[in-house]
Amino acid sequence: MLKIFSTVALACLISGCISLKAPQVKGIDKVSFTELSPDMKMMFNLNVHNPNNYGVNIKRMNVKVFLDDSLISKIGLAGKQKIAASSNIALPFEVQPKLAHLPKLALAGITEIFSNSGSKLKMEGEIVVSKFIFRKKYSFSVPKK
Question: Is the CB of residue 23 less than 8 Å from the CB of residue 87?
Fold first, then answer.
């Protein structure tokens, strides 16, 4: 019984010492598209910064992609990713937009989507980060105008 109490007390003490800071989703880059067809795909990198003084694992990441406040697609990170202490990582994603949004993408113009005067691309989601036995879930939003 004393061993169990000691283990629980030690875990509580350690969890109070580790403050897992939220990773910062910095933005989107390297956006590319396949040809405009029903099977069109959009590829991009989502840049994430680890502000912690130690490496962390991204256990799960779910992202919703919006164009002008209209949901284009939902995607998730396949497998876990490690981010070194105080560093950046570019997470590659591939999205196949819903068929209903293909005309909107074509009308918006692929290059205009990512220009300052064009349509608004936005990503929202959640990211689950872990270190040892500690795990935290954070929400994020990346507007791109």
Answer: no
Q: Would 126 be classed as within a structural domain?
A: yes
Write the pLDDT tens digit of every residue in 92-136.
Answer: 888 877 666 666 665 555 554 555 444 567 888 998 888 888 888
Contact 53, 29 (CB under 8 A): no
What CATH code is carried by the domain that includes residue 53? Answer: 2.60.40.10
Residue located via tokens 């502000």: 51
- DSSP assignment of 21-89: PPPEEEEEEEEEE--SSTT--EEEEEEEE--SSS-EEEEEEEEEEEETTEEEEEEE--S-EEE-TT-EE
pTM > 0.70: yes or no? no
